[in-house]
Amino acid sequence: MHRYRSHKCGDLRESNIGETIRLSGWVHRVRDHGGVLFIDLRDHYGLTQCVVDPDSPAFALAEKLRSEFVVKMDGKVRRRPEGTDNDDLPTGKIEIYVSEIEVLGPAGDLPLPVFGDQEYPEDIRLKYRFLDLRREKLHQNIMTRVEIIKSMRRRMEGQGFFEFNTPILTASSPEGARDFLVPSRIHPGKFYALPQAPQQYKQLLMMSGFDRYFQIAPCFRDEDPRADRLPGEFYQLDVEMSFVTQEDVFAAMEPVITGVFEEFAKGKPVNKNWRRIPFAEALRKYGSDKPDLRNPIEMQDVSEHFRGSGFKVFARMLEDPKSQVWAIPAPGGGSRAFCDRMNSWAQGEGQPGLGYIMWREGGEGAGPLANNIGPERTAAIRAQIGTKEGDAAFFVAGDPDKFWKFSGLARNKVGEELNLTDKERFELAWIVDFPMYEYNEDDKKVDFSHNPFSMPQGGLDALKGQDPLTIKAFQYDITCNGYEIASGGIRNHVPEAMVKAFEIAGYGEQEVVDRFGGMYRAFQYGAPPHGGMAAGVDRIVMLLCGTNNLREISLFPMNQQAMDLLMGAPSEPSTKQLRELHVRVNLPQK
Fold first, then answer.
1. pLDDT at residue number 174
2. Residue 550: helix, strand or coil by DSSP?
3. How confident is the model over 341-377, as pLDDT tens digits?
4. In whole angstroms, what is the distance from residue 534 CA to residue 218 CA?
């Protein structure tokens, strides 16, 4: 028999009854039933109930076992007594009568429990991540992640893509976040950068004639902590294709992402027909460029009903041609208690309040706004937004560029509070027609809105003859349930257009050559039209595992202060290391 096991802890069934076997694993828990010890033995593959009674030669040692001891057990498979089957376990009809135990690895007092999935302080969980990873839910999440990535690879290969690995040590790139810099020992005073994304390399692969690339790519960004991104590093399904239009990218990637969601949705519906929503429409209807489409609420512009009305606050705002009033319908929200609750919530978000109208029996409007604008205007609003008796609507006003994010939060809050958001499905969509540029208020200049390497709609002609702030780009995102899970674009592969695009954002031609020399040179020697995208592996796994915390689906994540509590990173380098790198540390004064 093998030194450690003849079977794994999830293998044994009724067909094994009568066999002498050997198992190794962790002691999950020990139960004492009237002097008979029941030991649940666990390994990666499952759990088996083992029984030791006082007649067994192993009993004396079994009494000393504690949770998370690693042990080897020999014994005989037998049928569980009638009425004690556990239908939740594949091994639930059998048990092992133990004749011999060997302790392979004793365990000290546990800093956190492994049995059960109760909440525990995150700093302890991250410091003892090797114990945390033994817990059933987290262990399952990690294995789900493994299977999701396998599914992505299989589906990408089925679409004719080839997996390439791009460099980790590279040059700094303006992807929109800070680079992690790596000092060069061989070239004093110079630094490599860890890739924020393989953007330039994947485009260079298209220049090299490889046609269809993908990679499960690690990406590194020295960003402040964010709720929807792990600090430091994350993984993406990175994709690029040659000789394609935007439609070709959509046709290739929709089946991949839909298929992955369907495979791991655990029976939740996944929409097959993705909506395509222009960026401006997404902001206008949902107050978000990553709208949660499980929430049926769509906002509407109701400015005309307040223009010149008795509600002077809105009427005065509307004298500015930029200003608008948006209505957020709240089906079933027509109670004073709910409207007051929403008003208090808005104040907690830093707003002066949240105006509302309630529609009473007979369709009559009620509330301060209704009283100020009168029954005719109130009825006109109701007719436009389709509210009924027992419904309400909330109103936000001002410059939409400044309030759209708040209006989106209010829409989400109404959907949540009134149980309008269907939590039991996945709703995927494309967001398209992103603006190529935006105005940077801090620097008082035009800047890139999204990816600087995207092709503007209208090409070079648009760059030369159009107001930059009106130019749309061939850029697109995939959203799901309120998260952006992918972003991409058709690339600007024309050298003159690339230089012009960067010139509008304040970069001179020489700066483009200096910063993107490899790609700029490649464009001079026969560049195919190409495009692609990158899907966030971590966010997709998070959604499919039914959690809203990325640390619940990652092996060894950092905490929110970007510290690895398990390995003690970041740490101070030795004087010798700094000397070899020709680096001197200049710490800020406390």
1. 59
2. helix
3. 999 999 999 999 999 999 988 778 999 999 999 999 9
4. 11
Cα separation, 105 vs 40, in Å, equals 16
Check residue 15 and report its DSSP letter: G
pLDDT of residue 207: 95
The whole-model pTM stands at 0.93
Query: CA–CA separation, 22 vs 9, rounded Å?
Result: 10
Three-state DSSP state, 531: strand
What's CA 125's distance to the chain center, in Å?
21
The Cα–Cα gap between 567 and 175 comes to: 29
Counting Cβ atoms within 10 Å, is residue 279 exposed (0-12), middle (13-18) or buried (19+)? Answer: buried
DSSP state letters, 428-444: EEEEE--BSEEEETTTT
Whether residue 194 contacts residue 168, with contact meaning beta carbons closer than 8 Å, is answered with: yes
CB atoms within 10 A of CB 402: 10
What is the C-alpha separation between 288 and 280, in angstroms, rounded? 9
Report residue 454: phi and psi, to 5°: -80, 155
pLDDT for 458-507, tens place per residue? 999 999 999 999 999 999 999 999 999 999 999 999 999 999 999 999 88
* Amino acid at the residue 586: N
- Least Cα distance to 262 among 551, 553, 548, 540 occurs for 540
Query: What are 542's two structure tokens?
Result: 């998070």
Task: Identify the three-state secondary structure at position 394.
Answer: strand
* Cα angle 488-494-498, degrees, rounded to a multiple of 5: 70
In sequence order, the 6+-apart residues with CB closer than 8 A to the CB of 571 are none
Burial classification of residue 197, based on how many CB atoms lie within 10 Å of its CB (0-12 exposed, 13-18 middle, 19 or more buried): buried
Distance, in Å, from the CA atom of 94 to the CA atom of 9, rounded to the nearest integer, reads 12
The sheet carrying 365-366 orders its strands as 300-301, 324-330, 392-398, 355-359, 365-366
For the chain, counts of helices (H) and of strands (E):
18, 22
Amino acid letter for position 201: Y
